[in-house]
Amino acid sequence: MTSRVPSAGSGQSEEAAGEARAWISGYDARIRRRLVILVLLSLALCASFVLDLITGPSSMGVPHALKGLFGLGELSLPQRIIIFDVRVPAAIVAILVGAALSLAGAEMQTVLNNPLASPFTLGVSSAASLGAALALVLGIGIPGVPPDWIVSGNAFLFAFASVLLLQGMARARGAGVETLVLVGIAMVFTFNALVALVQFVASQDALQQLVFWTMGSLGRASWNKLAILAFLLIILLPLSLKDAWKLTALRLGEDRARSFGINVARLRFVSLVRVSLLAGTSVAFVGTIGFIGLVGPHIARLMVGEDHRFFLPTSVLTGALLMSLASALSKVLATGVVLPVGIMTALIGVPFFIFLIFTSRERT
Amino acid sequence: MSSSLLTIRDLCAGYGRRRIIETLSVPAIEGGSVTALLGPNAAGKTTLLRALAGLLPMTGGLDLCGEDLTALSVAERASRVTYMPQSLPQRVALTVFEAVLAALRASPLAGMSPEGARNEAMRALERLGIADLALSSLDELSGGQRQLASLAQAIVRSPRVLLLDEPTSALDLNHQHKVMALVEEVARERGIVAIIVLHDIALACRWCKRVMVFSKGAVVADGTPEKAVTPEVLAAVYGVSARVERCSRGFLQVSVDGPA
Ligand SMILES: Nc1ncnc2c1ncn2[C@@H]1O[C@H](COP(=O)(O)OP(=O)(O)OP(=O)(O)O)[C@@H](O)[C@H]1O
Ligand SMILES: [Mg+2]
């Protein structure tokens, strides 16, 4: 019986040392593969960005725009304005919003330990819609906010407040993540009902505006909004990455993470504050865009696994890429019309997602 | 390395208003050997370990070599006391190696270099004999394999107090003894306090110097296996009529004849 007992501590055999070197190099190869995936995603994102710039409702042909963009052909002044003052900010905002929503979704799925968690499924987007509805229909806004920021301001305030409410309720009950998720789902229904109530009393005009707002559109992009989003991401992404190991540990279970010395309640709170900032701002600027926050992280997970040092940046890129592609596609499906991008995200995200699920099944 | 000494005085712990453990005091637990914690389901074994690890609010005194553990921050306490939960790690898309690395790197006090952490993680997997699983994903492992990965996470942190909650519940015969031998060796090598919850009494008697039998939140028998594991104790705690006999190698064996 005792003969099978390992004799650790004694000198390692040559064979064992060789084995260890073999799998350590296997691990290094994996890390390299993940870095390659990050690079490839970045390249795809650049391509999609260019595609987003050369498509759109204008008499300017795609080849002409492409040549002009790279300095190979002449662009008229109006064409320059269309590309550089209209399409460039919209295309960058698309990337930033996709990145922000996907990062928010990734963190949410981890800290709430739920694969269905996303800003959309837990009421953040619904709360933003309610804020927007109040501004659009009833003219209720935060005092002192300039008129063209009232809708965004309201949407942000409500989105941010909804996450804090989620936090507060869960903390008051002293309960676990299941409660958080249930409260989130309850909030979706509550806010949707309130939005419906506002819609019921809305004028024909306001109703139209509200419906368009909830579909999500990049038409509201501007350099100011772009700057705010970029600033947020630049501040928050490094903070998320700083917590990468803690978030990875949390995936193994809450008790386990706490036994490693991680203050899980604090980690969850800080992470949800980041989520509310990212999701609140995104939804405030471009309206409700579902699906990216849910599926971006899942695609990233299938590609690189859940080591958050790679999972978080990959989520950022997958979300940005999906959103950028959706933006380009929203302009080419029907000539002369820009479809709401919120509709496109699901239409291109779902097939891509299903493709990945099936190809990754085959691999294992 | 000198052996650690853990003293538990008047410990109370529970969930909300429900007290599970009332003023528990036990003779100091010595490092360097393994202490088994036996007892029926719902006796409060997990509750006790979680309270010791600081995962559950508790009152009372907890002293490790003259240091008051209750006065430490979460992170400091975790660096001295490691708890391996009874539940298996979740099925996630992380390799065993990454999971063990996370156990080292996620700690707020981890002053370890990435290189050092890698070497430690590698050594822990080798000692447990699961180096071949290093690059397997936790979501494609068997239950027992995940339990071994969980154990690697606990051992790699090289604490002063190692609390293992049923670390062998999912393991086959060979691995049960391998794991017990390893825990015993680690305890001896580093002089740490190792408390291990077991349901297999023979396994406890084979590998542990001290056995505490726990029932309804209190210790009902405590001492060497010979002293703590008796037919009377088994009848009182588990409600079974059993014989305790020595095998040819001198270890205690329990044969159960039926309900008491
Ligand atoms: N999260 C909880 N909330 C409330 N009560 C709990 C909780 N966990 C355990 N208890 C109660 O505490 C008591 C002791 O449970 P504990 O998990 O410590 O038992 P145990 O000795 O580890 O049992 P087992 O051998 O089945 O693991 C039980 O009566 C149980 O109902
Ligand atoms: Mg238990």
Automatic annotation (TrEMBL), chain A:
Please give the Gene3D superfamilies that the UniProt record associates with this protein: ABC transporter involved in vitamin B12 uptake, BtuC (1.10.3470.10)
Q: Which InterPro entries match?
A: ABC_BtuC-like (IPR037294), ABC_transptr_permease_BtuC (IPR000522)
Organism per entry: Breoghania corrubedonensis
List the membrane topology term(s): Multi-pass membrane protein
Q: Which family does it belong to?
A: Belongs to the binding-protein-dependent transport system permease family. FecCD subfamily.
Q: What is the lineage of its organism?
A: Bacteria, Pseudomonadati, Pseudomonadota, Alphaproteobacteria, Hyphomicrobiales
Q: Which Pfam families match?
A: FecCD
What protein name applies here? Answer: Iron complex transport system permease protein
Going by the UniProt record, its keywords in alphabetical order are:
Cell membrane, Membrane, Transmembrane, Transmembrane helix, Transport
Question: Is Transmembrane a UniProt keyword of this protein?
Answer: yes
**Gene Ontology cellular-component terms listed:** plasma membrane
Under SUPFAM superfamilies, the record lists: ABC transporter involved in vitamin B12 uptake, BtuC (SSF81345)
Q: Where in the cell is it found?
A: Cell membrane
- Membrane-spanning regions, if any? 35-54, 81-104, 116-143, 149-168, 180-202, 222-241, 275-298, 310-330, 337-358
Q: Which GO terms describe its molecular function?
A: transmembrane transporter activity
Carries keyword Cell membrane? Answer: yes
Q: What broad class describes the main subcellular location of this protein?
A: membrane
Which Gene Ontology terms describe the biological processes this protein takes part in?
Answer: siderophore-iron import into cell
**What highest taxon heads this organism's lineage?**
Bacteria
UniProtKB/TrEMBL annotation, chain B:
Q: Name one GO molecular function term.
A: ATP binding
Query: Lineage of the source organism?
Result: Bacteria, Pseudomonadati, Pseudomonadota, Alphaproteobacteria, Hyphomicrobiales
Q: Which domain of life is it from?
A: Bacteria
Q: Which UniProt keywords apply?
A: ATP-binding, Nucleotide-binding, Translocase, Transport
> What is the protein named?
Iron complex transport system ATP-binding protein
Check the record and name the InterPro entries matching this protein: AAA+_ATPase (IPR003593), ABC_transporter-like_ATP-bd (IPR003439), ABC_transporter-like_CS (IPR017871), P-loop_NTPase (IPR027417)
Q: Which organism is it from?
A: Breoghania corrubedonensis
Which SMART domains has this protein been placed in? AAA
The UniProt similarity line reads:
Belongs to the ABC transporter superfamily.
Tell me the function of this protein: Part of the ABC transporter complex HmuTUV involved in hemin import. Responsible for energy coupling to the transport system.
> Known PANTHER family for this protein?
HEMIN IMPORT ATP-BINDING PROTEIN HMUV
Q: Where is the ABC transporter domain?
A: 6-241
Task: Tell whether ATP-binding is among the UniProt keywords.
Answer: yes
